Amino acid sequence: MPSISGLTDHDGYWLRVVSNAVSHDFARKVAGEGVTVAEWAVLRVLYDVDQMVPSSLARELRVTKGAVSKLADRLLEKKLIKRTESREDLRMHSLSLSKAGRQKVPVLAKLADDNDAEYFGVLTTEERDALSRILTALVERRGLSDVPMD
Amino acid sequence: MPSISGLTDHDGYWLRVVSNAVSHDFARKVAGEGVTVAEWAVLRVLYDVDQMVPSSLARELRVTKGAVSKLADRLLEKKLIKRTESREDLRMHSLSLSKAGRQKVPVLAKLADDNDAEYFGVLTTEERDALSRILTALVERRGLSDVPMD
DNA sequence: TATTGTTATACTCTATAACTATA
DNA sequence: TATAGTTATAGAGTATAACAATA
Hints:
Two copies of one chain form a homodimer. Chain A has helices at 11-31, 37-49, 54-61, 65-77, 99-120, 125-141; strands at residues 51-52, 81-85, 93-97. Chain A is mainly alpha-helical. The first copy, chain A, has one domain (30-146): Winged helix-like DNA-binding domain superfamily/Winged helix DNA-binding domain (Arc Repressor Mutant, subunit A), CATH 1.10.10. Chain A is globular and about 65 Å long.
């Protein structure tokens, strides 16, 4: 008789358990700063580039332009980003951090650092190095750079 | 000047990238069988126990009873599970697999096996063992058995 | 009163596709 | 026609809390 594999027999299951726990806790932390994880990603990208059109942001974050539109709406409401019209092409506009948004990024980055330390700090140096190495290997060998972050 | 960590500087980020990719592909596979990943988890648990009350299922899957109620509704519509009233305690009822549900579990388990092989097969035996070991260590040391699977 | 389960409501995240304005 | 962006719609996944029935 064939044996049926269980939920816990798959690496994908445990990966999801750990990933969800890490993300869930991080979401709770950034919620204290009034933003979601998806919003944090937008803010962090804008922090480096100063300004970016929504279509580029969609490519960078690997989501649809509709998703970016919605995220941008919320960040505008929260006054963390600004919209600037383009003069050359009136269809386009740029998104950039507001002063408040720029001030918030280091705070959020610190929370991300804390969260990582909290979770992966229980590993030995060897384990942590191995994890990073293996995750990177998976990303490279499976070509996950093009995978959406849903 | 303090340097601000980026999205990709955290293990949590890469964990999320890989986990999302694995789950996304698995979701696509089971969608071909007409179920979602959350529904697969319900079916797989019921496969072993024959029958279970929603409150136990909620504990097992670490979601709220409301979430189980919704999942059960969908699985009933799809005729993959059955509801049976309890005779001792009329507030309770048991959920169990229908014949169709029981037949589907091995098919779904095979898809989970395939998905795992597809993703983690690119790792060497040593890497794969290390990944399993490290994920297990994280679950144990961080006490993630109690974390919800959202 | 406490418990089981359902239902109502709400939110995040995402997608697809129709639509508007501009090129 | 093609492109940039918005909006409408939908659906998965989840939570909280109000509720009904029963214990």
